[in-house]
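Objective 1b. Sequence-to-structure analysis of Exportin-T.
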Amino acid sequence: TELFEDNPFDYIQLDMEGSDADTRRRCSVDLVRGMCRTFPDHTTSICTEYITQLLSQYAQSPDQNSHLKDAALHLMLAVSVKAHTLSQGASELNEKVNVMEIFTTHVLPEIQDTSNLNQRPIVRADCIKFVNTFRRQFSLDQLKSLLPLLISHLGSEQVVVQTYAALCIERMLTVKDKNPQTGGRAVPRFNETELQPFLESLFTGLFAVLDSPELKENDYIMKAIMRTLNVAKASIIPVTAIVLEKLTAALARVCRNPSNPQFNHYLMESLAV
């Protein structure tokens, strides 16, 4: 919790970018996945019982027991994912785990509750991570229904939550499917037409975070802006002036005090688009 609040970017690198190899949680996850490969039935059954118990205790007092759902969601990921990469998300699943049922029952309600975006922030971050992990398993309609909820979470006061939302949006826009009409070539699931209705609210949310004077240069936010511009193509023409104004203002800030090479790279890519 202290790392989540006091050093959010360190938390993100540990939790989302795979630099947690030496942590107890990562070692536990690797152990569970190894047991799932060797004893799939027994391990899945035992872990499912623990997950059910943790979620039952969480439901009795969510605000006081958020750490229990945090543990349950990470155990879910350990049991359900057999193969995973940062660029592609989950590519092979445990067929004994109903991921979509877990999502509908335990993940989606947390994301849908936008009445207080700062409530139970670790659980919200975990749920967004769940969506990001299984982004390839969602249909286009499901992704389109999730996008406004993720955009809303850009308004959280918690850096981890708003960053996870931006990261999840950016990676959702990279999901591709093989299309027989293009000779089997993979094409983006989200295209210009699909993204267009969300552009105004998405840019508003991303630039609100980018313009915040309290926050350091967040390369995840800038990468999400870059990806949105790439996918939107000509759809950005109506908002080109305001987008350029925001980007040039960001460029002026980094010219005065450049500190994050990744941020600068995505900023220049965005301007090039």
